[in-house]
Amino acid sequence: YHQLHTKETRLSKFNQTEIKAMLGSYTKVLFVRDPFHRLIATFLQGMGINPSFSSFVQEVLDSGIHNSSVAWKPLVSLCRPCLIQYDYVVMFGFLRQELGHLLHRAGLPVGSLLPELTDSQVQWTYRWLSEQMFSELSAQQKKQLSRFYRWDLAAFPFSSSFLSE
């Protein structure tokens, strides 16, 4: 299908038979991150126009799932894990371990390609940051966010997510 596939072509432009054939010929890797961490990162990168995290979250909730930005849209609606059989799902926070395995499986040299990742420091920092940001939210916002990301929380093991508590 390489003659049909161009840089600009989206998977949705193909019929089901073509999609199945194309996806069967690729190694499919999905990188996932706790949805609450994605919100924090988006806010810190200045993608929200509001000055407080709470007002940014309200902007996200008001946008709804169908009108939301790719930066905070639920992963399930972006990546379709129920329709696409991914070969690997790599969780943020376990990047060094999982990328090493993935590179090894692909026959690539593991040590030279991996950046220095200190997953435990990243996890600790996001845990602390999550506690701070989560405390800014009202009980109503917490409940709405859990509902907004309910399918992500059901599809992926974000056991330590503030949204699943």
Automatic annotation (TrEMBL):
It is an enzyme of class 2 (transferase). Its main location: Golgi. One of its GO terms (cellular component) is Golgi membrane. Keywords: Carbohydrate metabolism, Glycoprotein, Golgi apparatus, Membrane, Signal-anchor, Transferase, Transmembrane, Transmembrane helix. Pfam families: Sulfotransfer_2. It comes from the Eukaryota. GO terms for molecular function: sulfotransferase activity. It is found in: Golgi apparatus membrane. GO terms for biological process: carbohydrate biosynthetic process; dermatan sulfate proteoglycan metabolic process. It is a single-pass type II membrane protein. Its EC number is 2.8.2.-. InterPro entries: Carb_sulfotrans_8-10, Sulfotransferase. Belongs to the sulfotransferase 2 family. This is Carbohydrate sulfotransferase. The gene is Chst8_0.
